[in-house]
Amino acid sequence: MTANLRSNIWAQLGWTWRDHVDAAPIADSNRLQFHKDLADGSAGGQADAVWHAEDQVLADGVSTTLDLAALELDLFGSSLTISLAGVRAILIVTSATSEGCLIVGGAAADPWDAPFGSGADRVKIMPGGLLLLAHPEQGWDVQPGQTALKIEADGGFATYDIAILGNTSEASSSSGG
Would you tell me how many other CB atoms lie within 10 Å of the CB of residue 24? Predict the structure, then answer.
């Protein structure tokens, strides 16, 4: 079986801010956006695997720990295990109906800390919010002993969707550094 992945990362924040200065209307209308298409592969700016889960529910105080080197996925009628060597992007979207927030990071054993800075660092996602971490060119490494991504509900149940885009193998380099 031949696999091929086409992926992209989009993020945009737009605004129109209107005010009056000396009885004259003024407006600031603009946007900040990011868009990157990734080709299939493991070199810079490429990805060859995606793992996702929808409608995940955690009760208050309950956590799940994803092993980035052994992510299970039912796809095309088969059960697959995706072993990531690198992560290009993670998107976690929480439901507005969640009572609590999600705490991401800070696994007790083998924490994947590449985007966080240290194994104890964590990020809080409020109900109805999202977290997008992206490093599409080189990605963050997933190394032995640093594969655990912890997700925990805090302050009530939390419902979320998650997608992780990455590489299953390291890119080979043809030039010295």
Answer: 7
